[in-house]
Amino acid sequence: MRTPASRLSTAKKGPSCGPRTSNTDPTRRVEFTDINTSVFGWPSRGGVIVLNEATHVDFHFLGLGTTDPPRKRRLRSRPPSPAGDATRAPASEPKAIATRDGPEREDDEEDTFCQRLLLLGAKWWDSEKRYQSVDRFGAGIQPFVEDVEEGRVEPPTLRERRWVKVGWETAVSSMDVSDTGGFWLLDCDANWMGIIEQDNMVPEDAARVNLAASMDERCEILKQMGARFYPALGQYEGESTFLRAWEWKREGEIGQLKKVG
């Protein structure tokens, strides 16, 4: 669902959460700014999945360390290049893991990680360029606002602009995303230009979610904030989030999913 351009000038702006990088790096895993922590996933279907405002509860759910979080994802070795050692990656790049079925297994593991990101309310962007354009639009940065207002860039879709927080009552204890139970979902319209749902905007006390020391505490906080409970992922049929996008997404929000790497 796209936001009519005619509605863009009547809504309030809000702070941006995303990073300020400009170059696509398909090895990126965790990125920090002065106000935000972002986790990246690179699905084999294309595009990029990003979880902003990630906390230690999210890191635990994803199996990521918090004292020394991985800035890059580990890549498995690819078939040798005809150019030989001339194309060998520099030592500063992620260390490859030799394996007979490296590329295929790498894709499978990354796709599994991406599915877990989606379970936390992450967004699946058509490309990193689209992600950064919408992120800057949401921050109210004038050149990016003008791009949308003047029709050079498509306005954020309903799913792209959503503020989504998820708490899982039954711990998803393994990387098997089919091992899911009940969850609490708080799904609101972002406080950006072009507000779609005036009666369902991000709560003024939204930062309370970050106080949770565990997934159980997050569930309790979300419950207090008016979140809805779903006994199982399969019972959620909403179209405003990417929670179940792995089941149906084959195209981008406004175009094709861009593959990288």
Tag the structure with descriptive keywords.
single chain; 261 residues; alpha+beta; globular
- The helix tally amounts to 6
List the quaternary state of the chains.
Answer: single chain
Distance between the termini: 29 Å
Radius of gyration: 19 Å
Instruction: Name the poorly predicted regions.
Output: 1-7, 9-22, 80-100
**Main beta sheet: strand number and arrangement?**
4 strands, antiparallel
Mean pLDDT: 81
What is the share of helical residues? 10-25%
Number of strands: 7
SSE class: alpha+beta
What order do the SSEs take from the amino end to the carboxyl end, as H and E?
Answer: EEEHHEHHEEHEH
Q: Could you describe the 3D structure shown?
A:
It contains 6 helices and 7 strands, in the order βββααβααββαβα. Mean pLDDT is 81; it is low at 1-7, 9-22 and 80-100. A hairpin with a 6-residue loop joins β2 (37-41) and β3 (48-51). The strands form 2 sheets. It has a 4-stranded antiparallel beta sheet. A 3-stranded antiparallel beta sheet has the order 5-6-7. It has 261 residues and is α+β, with helices and mostly antiparallel strands. The protein is globular.
